[in-house]
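thought: fold this chain, then report.
action: predict
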Amino acid sequence: MRCARGPPTSTLPLVFLLLGFPWRTGHWVPMASPVRRWRRVPAAAGDSADTASATAPVVVWLRNELRLCDNPLLQRGLQLAKGNLQLVVCLDPREFQATTAFGSPKVGELRKRFVEECLCDLRRRVAERGSRLLVQQKAPEEVLPALVSEGSTVLVTAQVCSEERAVERRVRKALEAKGAALEVVPAAGITDLVGPEELQRAGVPSGEEFPVIFQRFFLPLRPFLLEICQKGLSDAPVNLPSASGAELEDEELRLTDAVPGTDIRGGETAGLERMTVWLNSGFRSYKDTFRSLQGDYSSRLGAHLAYGCISPRRLVKEALSHGSGQSSVHVEHFVYEMCWRDFFRHTAARWGTGLFHVAGPAECGAHGMSSESSWKRDLGAERRWKEGSTGVPLVDAAMRELNETGYIGNLARQFVAAFLIEDLQIDWRVGADWFEATLVDYDVHSNWGQWARSAGVVPTNEAKRNRVGGTRYYDLAMQRPEVSDYVRNWLPELQDVADEELFSPWTNSWPIGKVLSATSNGSSYSKPLISMRLKQYFESVSGASRLCGLPSPRRAKKGKGQRKGGMIV
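observation:
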């Protein structure tokens, strides 16, 4: 089917099995309850099939591996198929019609469009090779049994989240009733850099013994990374077996209108192009620029990694091949950040549902890092934080960028989290939940793992504890030469405020209203929702600027204040 462009329709948004919450309403849950349900499920006997019937179709069930290159899941399908291979994406209505436990949409509009673009690109690439990508807006346990016959095998990549595991169990039961099997393929080389085999070689324990301190994972693994990342890579197949016998009709992929302000395009084609361009440009200064607030300072490949448009091993291998001379420090830092992505995936598997408790995993209780009573809920404050109307210009600018573009850079993520956690003392899961709803590059493991670390509810090293709290992330932001232009770019109502008053507008005669009007004409700004500690901090920065006693925020050079953000990597 063709990929038609047009305005949004009343049909369901086209999103494949996205990671989200099990609740289907906006009702609040008790603070002691986890907001996700995870469970490690051992592989059932008979999961694997080395051969398939000559007439029975082999089905590759795609979830977070939307690519043809470097895809061991697809290669396994080609190995088993005897001339009949069906690629299928199931758009489960239980995923994208729901709201989270905190009342947010499970998947925001910007991420929906990204996934639509991924599916359009993959469908085109599959069709060019003589086959088809079947897209269905139904539950997998309804779709997959209709594609198989006795002796068929359905392939899927291993995941650790309880929702996906629950769907797998329902699919397995439905397939068994038709004499078909579900084979779960290990995630290493597909969605993850490493698995238990690679960890064992590096001397790093896996599963429930996986280390909770990053350096204990990264340092033993680093010498083996290049060799590991050279495995499982492959070009896209020249041809694909035909998908015959399926009676289901394709769903038409209908792209919504392009969203102003975001330049991240979905799909394997766009992901590979971006990887090539960035590795030969911004990558060479990554360690110096990854904390910037605007400009082309980061790879912006996080969304492509989250949905499997590109292989994490391919990206690390290509990055390491660019590491020589003066660029090596930037290569090492990028690889370091990529390994954080895998670290969060393995720690999430270790902690299970505990990661989503307000006080963190039960095993972390002995650390005395947090408790349920340490957090509060304030719907008014939460709303203002989400919409970017707290009256704190630096925080508001970042939140408005997030809402409009679907991404913000590494540093911005850190200081908006610090504001919600340290100053408002709001339940940290409210922030993780909002990032889930709004980020284009949302990944459940990295998102919730990083928020839990910022909240101090999971073990971490002493250096991280010293960074959380205080004003470190604000200091880093205020030292950026583009910080003033960044704030003005996203807060037009402060466009004419002088630099020395820009970050504490409540100290001067600038009109301050109780709530920022949705149709502000530049004459008012929100009354600040701020702790005394942070209020004094921004006033001291402004005062230092006026007295020239301390470095002040500097305006970026003309032409640099563009609405661009960055991904975690």
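thought: worth noting. The chain has 23 helices and nine strands.
final: tokens above.
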